[in-house]
Structures are given as structure tokens and as C-alpha cells.
Specification:
The chain is built from seven helices and 17 strands. It is α/β, with parallel strands linked by helices. It folds into two domains: 242 residues, QueA-like (3-Layer(aba) Sandwich); 69 residues, Thrombin, subunit H (Beta Barrel), CATH 2.40.10. The chain has a nine-stranded mixed beta sheet, covered by helices on one side. A six-stranded antiparallel beta sheet has the order 5-6-7-10-9-8, with no helix packed on it. The radius of gyration is 20 Å and the shape is globular. The two termini are 20 Å apart.
């Protein structure tokens, strides 16, 4: 067990970063990790249903990515609209920050705004004179490691097929592999966690104890709570689903709220039994979460094997099933 951030690093060749999706959603590869035996299998995501047993429940995040990235009308300032804090008032990331000091005026889609304050995290609170039409003036906020502009296929492929409730600035990427046909034949339930910008940020502190986790909003329905409580085994699709289930614990109740839970070794899981996840960035909180689920040494060994076997990494990449 290690709390040193440097112990969650690994070298990744640039060519293994998946910057475009596979031809088919279910066409990705799937590495299967058996925690008890420390065995690794190489399969395809289409084999996923074969690992679901009677009494299992697959739990997925039905958040929808909104068109949160926009530019000022003069094209000189980039905004990432994170969430509303009051009527027509947004918390935003702004680049370059020098153009968004308190008192500065901006305009997006013809709507004027005033920067009211700068938060400790660097985010700006901006009050606009009216409602910003992000469907018209915004675009999907693709992860920075794509290093490309949004393309037509992203409008469909950077959303899960079950995306429903808009509010995320990043996709719950483990869910991107599912097709309607695969999902229809699995016992499943949905919860909502609106994925925040912190999902892209590596841990900067030398020790995990010095990292402040970002907060994300979640919702759990009565139907989902009942299904989870009746299940023999919970199969969480993605780290976002895992964070909600571990924040609330079992038995689950219908609720809404926010969580900033930081899961890392030696965390003991209370709700999740099986985890499907993508391959994550070095030194990221997501890599630390799965290291708590399957032991850091086993995870890093699996990542080394994934690199040797040319797996695709990150949001549009392949996946890992941890049993």
C-alpha cells in the first residue's frame, strides 16, 4: 500500500492514446482481471455478458454530456461552463485567465456577462444578462488529450446510448462500450453522477493525503435503490458509478446530493463487487481508485501487459473488467 503519488505513474506511448472511437461500440478489447488468482485474460467487450451471473445487477451512470465548451464572441476567450450557481450565473473555467479578472466583461452568443469572482481553484463565477444557448453556441468538451477539434461522430459516440440527464462535462467512458442490444439482455439499473472537470486532472500533491477531490452531483431513484438492495452482486460500470455507490453505501436509499469521496488504497469497498472501467491517466484519482479495488501492484502489472499488447487507452479506448 502506498500513498506516494509517484507510485501511481506509468509510461504510456503516445500512439496508444485512442483519439477516435472504434468502428463499433462493442468492438473494443476487454482485459479481464481475476483479483483472487491474480490472473489476466484477454477478451473482447462483446464477451462481457458471459461474466454476468444470476443475481447480478449492472449499474450504469445515465448522465449526459452537455455542450459546455464555448468561446467569447470575439474569439479571444475560451469557456468551459461547469454548472449554474444561480439564474444565468455560471461557474466556469476560463482561458486565458487574465481576460477574466473580477469586474471584466465578456460576451457569449450575444449575451453579456460580468466576472463576479475568482475562486481558490481558479474557476470564475460569471453572471450573464440572459440565458446562454449552449446547444447553439457551445460544443462537446472533448478531453484535452484528444488534441483535436470536435468532429461529427463525437456528437453520438462521446455519449452513452443510455445518456439521459444533461449535466456532465465528461462522459462516463466505461459506458461507451454498451449497445442497446447488449444492455437489453442484462439486469441493469441507472443512477446519475454528473462528471466534473476534475476527472481530467492528475494529482499534483506528492502524497495522496494532500489532494483535494472535486465535488460531483448525483441522484439515485427509488427503483434503482430497490434493485441494488435486492442484488447478490453489484457490477459497477465505471468509476463514476463506483463513487456514488461507495459514497452512500448499502442498503441504498433514494437520494440526491454531492460527493467528493477520494478512493485510494487501503480503502475497503462497501458496495461494489465487480468493476468495468477504461484505462486511466497516470497519477490520476481514477487509477488510484482501481488500485484500491485490485491492489496497485496487480493494476500496474496489468497496465504493463496492456501496453505490450497494444490496448487502446483513455476515453475512446479499450476496457478492463475487474472480478
Amino acid at each position: 500500500m502506498s500513498l506516494l503519488t509517484s507510485d501511481y505513474d506509468y509510461p504510456l506511448p503516445e500512439h496508444l492514446i485512442a483519439r477516435h472511437p472504434t468502428a463499433r461500440r462493442d468492438g473494443s478489447r476487454m482485459m479481464v482481471l481475476h483479483r483472487e488468482s491474480q490472473r489476466i485474460e484477454h477478451r473482447n467487450f462483446s464477451d462481457f455478458p458471459g461474466y454476468i451471473s444470476d443475481g447480478d445487477l449492472v449499474v450504469l451512470n445515465d448522465t449526459r454530456v452537455f455542450r459546455a465548451r464555448a468561446f467569447s464572441d470575439d474569439g479571444r476567450v475560451e469557456f468551459l461552463f461547469l454548472e449554474t450557481v444561480a439564474t444565468n450565473t455560471w461557474r466556469c473555467l476560463v482561458k486565458p485567465g487574465r481576460r477574466a479578472r473580477p469586474g471584466a466583461t465578456v460576451s457569449v452568443g450575444g449575451i453579456a456577462g460580468v466576472v463576479k469572482e475568482t475562486e481558490e481553484t481558479g474557476e470564475r463565477i460569471i453572471e450573464f444578462a440572459g440565458e446562454i444557448d449552449l446547444e447553439k453556441h457551445g460544443e462537446l468538451p472533448l478531453p484535452p488529450y484528444f488534441e483535436r477539434d470536435v468532429e461529427k461522430e463525437d456528437d453520438e459516440r462521446y455519449q452513452t446510448v443510455f445518456a439521459k440527464k444533461a449535466g456532465a462535462v465528461a462522459a462516463p467512458t466505461a459506458g461507451l462500450h454498451f449497445t442497446p442490444e447488449i444492455l437489453a439482455n442484462l439486469p441493469h439499473a441507472f443512477l446519475t453522477l454528473h462528471v466534473g472537470v476534475g476527472t481530467f486532472r492528475p494529482v499534483q500533491a506528492d502524497n495522496l493525503a494532500g489532494h483535494q477531490m472535486h465535488t460531483e452531483r448525483y441522484e439515485i431513484s427509488e427503483q434503482t435503490a430497490a434493485a441494488v438492495n435486492a442484488a447478490k452482486r453489484i457490477v459497477a460500470i465505471g468509476t463514476t458509478t463506483t463513487r456514488v455507490l461507495e459514497s452512500t453505501g448499502l442498503p441504498l436509499t433514494s437520494c440526491s446530493g454531492s460527493t467528493n469521496i477520494f478512493i485510494h488504497p487501503p480503502y475497503q469497498f462497501r458496495a461494489v463487487d465487480v468493476l468495468l472501467t477504461n484505462f486511466h491517466l497516470p497519477k490520476s484519482t481514477l487509477l488510484m481508485l482501481i488500485s484500491a479495488f485490485a491492489e496497485r501492484e496487480f493494476i500496474l502489472r496489468a497496465y504493463e501487459e496492456a501496453i505490450r499488447e497494444n490496448y487502446r487507452f483513455y476515453s475512446y479506448g479499450d476496457c478492463m473488467l475487474i472480478l
